[in-house]
């Protein structure tokens, strides 16, 4: 199959050969698929992405990141769907990736059950303001703190989050905690 795939000139046939190779190969067959991720034909790139991901998701993360920036919207959409892999390591790596992610992928990662992945999404420089507000609705103080670390946080959202965290500190009313929060706010020029 590998020899037939590399020798096949017809772009309509190569996706079927890639699918057959992915279905019959083990992880060792992964290197045979990777060159086809750069094929000029979109259908071939899609089949290679699917097949490579099937054979070893964690091993093709750099290729997945490149696919998220592919010139074809079809390839980018498919890569975003593959980014929702059941393996939390894959999802976390995608959330950390500097590659552009479509809003649907960002939303999926922001709703992830792992807080660590949610925090990675909150740290993304390309996070839309609307999604920043959605993440701020979390009852998780850690999420609020992560959002406050952002340089590009909406000023109204920043004021709201600082107020919420300040209110939480007052509720706890421990003198050391209050002093620490006051020092933090002074350092940010807000006290």
Report on this structure.
This protein has 191 residues and is an all-alpha fold. Helices cover 66% and strands 0% of the residues. The chain is built from 13 helices and no strands. The protein has helices spanning 2-7, 14-24, 30-33, 42-56, 61-68, 73-82, 88-96, 103-110, 115-123, 129-136, 141-148, 155-172, 175-187. The protein is elongated, with a radius of gyration of 22 Å.
Summarize this, please?
By secondary structure, the chain is mostly helical. It is built from 13 helices and no strands. It has helices at residues 2-7, 14-24, 30-33, 42-56, 61-68, 73-82, 88-96, 103-110, 115-123, 129-136, 141-148, 155-172, 175-187.
SS class: mainly alpha
The helix content is 55-70%
Strand content: under 5%
Helix tally equals: 13
Quaternary: single chain
Main β-sheet description? none
Number of strands: 0
Spell out the key features of this protein.
191 residues; mainly alpha; 13 helices
Produce the secondary structure layout.
Elements (H helix, E strand, L loop, with lengths): L1 H6 L6 H11 L5 H4 L8 H15 L4 H8 L4 H10 L5 H9 L6 H8 L4 H9 L5 H8 L4 H8 L6 H18 L2 H13 L4
